[in-house]
User: What shape does this take?
Amino acid sequence: MPAASLLPFSSPPGGAGLGGGGGGGLGGLVGRKLSSPGAFRLTEKFILLLVFSAFITLCFGAIFFLPDSSKLLSGVFFHHPPSDQRPGGGGEEEEAAAAVAVESREEAAGNLAKIREDHERALREAKETLQKQADEIQRDIRRDKEQVARDRRGGGEGVGLPDLPFRQPVGAVGQEPADPDVRQKREKIKEMMKYSWDNYKLYAWGLNELKPATKQGHSSNLFGHIQGATIVDALDTLFIMEMKDEFAEAKEWVEKNLDFNVNAEVSVFEVNIRFVGGLLSAYFLSGEEVFRKKAVELGEKLLSAFNTPTGIPWALLNIKSGIGRNWPWASGGSSILAEFGTLHLEFVHLSHLSGNPVFAEKVMNIRKVLNNLDKPQGLYPNYLNPSSGQWGQHHVSVGGLGDSFYEYLLKAWLMSDKTDEEGKKMYYDAIQAIETHLIRKSSGGLTYIAEWKGGLLEHKMGHLTCFAGGMFALGADGAPPDMASHLLELGAEIARTCHESYDRTSIKLGPEAFRFDGGVEAIATRQNEKYYILRPEVIETYMYMWRLTHDAKYREWGWEAVEALEKHCKLDGGYSGIRDVYASRPSHDDVQQSFYLAETLKYLYLLFSDDDLLPFEHWVFNTEAHPLPVQHKDSEIEEDKSK
Ligand code: DMJ
Assistant: This one.
């Protein structure tokens, strides 16, 4: 999780927009009775725009049309009448006086030129400020107009969507595996899902997550006051496991209770990958319109995050006021690469589903900003300032703070049916630089991905980084010739290293980060890196490696993880993370993360399913394991011919 830090609640006051609240103010003055409050705001903004425009014109008039002030000033300020008007003209005295007068006039002219220059600069600055405000008002008016149009079509945000005939993509459901042993293991994983769901339902229904030890709800501040993270994150897992009753109750909760009209400061990244991603997948799998409507509604709320000088979005956004900011700990007010770089897949689909190109435009602009920047050694630092458009600290990571940026470049290309050449180039260029500067082999023969801090390597690999094994393997087919031959092998090596990090613990589940220095390999040495919070990345890589190689060891390793989860993480009230994976009697952190249902259990289920369930030619997984359909060139969404 790239942005794992705590988010303090400091919700800014609600938007005090122009004319908001009733028919007072300018809206009242013009005395028109309009049907919606949005229309009052619009009128007021038009008037303000007129006032600003008039003022700007006046300012310019002041420069160009007022009489030349230097002429006026020469007489008024310095009192030097021309020589022929002075008494007793002539003689040396007079010449000296004349010389002084000439000098004074020159000095005066100089002063006047300076005054004029200052005067013009001040007016120019005032004009620019006013112009900026006028632009903002114009943007606001445009937004309000769109909202009024939506309201007229009936309802609130996200409604009035274009008619889109639903065609279920290939592979939304799969066949039963033929092998009884595999079938049984898959059934066991489905039981684990049912256990997680039932306990969540019993103790934390409608809240974000479950505390399985104390049997109560857990609210993460990543979602502000948005509720139901586990429900939305679990929807598609319930669907593909054919847990129909549970899917129906989840859908009903979304219809009746999922509410984005809350005064909530949220993590744009987390809300996008879990809520937007979860709703999109639920729509593409089931065709239920409520999911499309909710996804677009939430996407529209997130758009305000892009209101920065560069269009690189804020990390945090109050979805009521539209005010954004960055994590206080992020280098010099920077946005985070893995956060702003992990919106692309969802936003491209949002444009398609809403008929509104704005979503895709926003994420394409992110690419533009990145492409215009110099990359140190071809690497992307984790921090980018959204105001200056400059990198913050030169820290590079394929784990936390960087990870899913790379994942989304590759998957954007795959999701576009391999037409997004820009995404492809950015991905393979980045991977080449990562191979050169970050990937190393330990003396014990384990390949790992180190972190880069201003040119120095830290020989540590995070659990989060383990997803990269699957990513390298997925991108092997289609890579430039000099990389294609070894990317699959690199994926296999990373899978092996990450398996070692699990195998070298007492509970056979791996730590948050492990090191390759101080005489150890693939072992956590710091107490604060020894925890396991039900993360999916290692199992994710097993799943990709299984699909791409059918090497039996990946299923064996996946099954080891199932047994460890059952033995050490299962409590009476659900599944919990572990504080120290090396302790002989592990203690529990008392959180059943929503990504356990969205990712860990889904990837395990897919590992023991046939390849016809969510096949890679038709689906890509967002970074929270929510499947999104490939946008095929020939037909927009391929029909499942078997239906
Ligand atoms: C998930 O929310 C996503 O996988 C994200 O990309 C990073 N980490 C967590 C799970 O570990």
